[in-house]
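Entry 14. Structure prediction run on the chain below.
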Amino acid sequence: MSNCFFCDIQKQGDNQRIIKNKYFFSRYDDFPVSKGHCEIIPKKHIVSFFDLTPKQTQSMYSLIKSTKSIIKKKFKPDGYNIGLNEGKAAGATQEHLHIHIIPRYKGDAKNPQGGIRNIFFHKADYFPKLKKIPAKRCYM
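Output returned:
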C-alpha cells in the first residue's frame, strides 16, 4: 500500500465510483457535505492542478460535466460549488489532486451568498462594498 489514498483505491477498487475516462475517474466523497458530493480524481498521481497537461485539463473538464449530469439527474440539486484545495495552506489534506463537486440545495445554508468566499466568512459578504462602486464598474 502506498501513502496515497487515491492511488490505493485505484489499485483496490471501491464502491463509490461514478464514471471514468482516459485520465480521470469520479467517485462519491467519503465525507460528503451534501447529497451527491463527489470528487474528480486523476488516475495518475498528480499533486497540483497546475501540473495538468492541456489534454488532461480537457479530460478533467469533460468528466466534471458528465459527472454533474449524473448528479443532476439523481439528486436534483439547485446549484453547485466546484473547487479544489491547492496546497496545505488552502486546506488540502491529500497530496493527490481532486476536484470537488458539491451539490447545493435551497435552504442548505442560512446565507449562501458569497459561495466559496465563505472560507473567510468575515469576507464573504462583499455586496455592501459593491454598492460603493460606480455603476459602470458594477457587474451585477
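The chain has a mean pLDDT of 87.
Filed with the rest of this week's runs.
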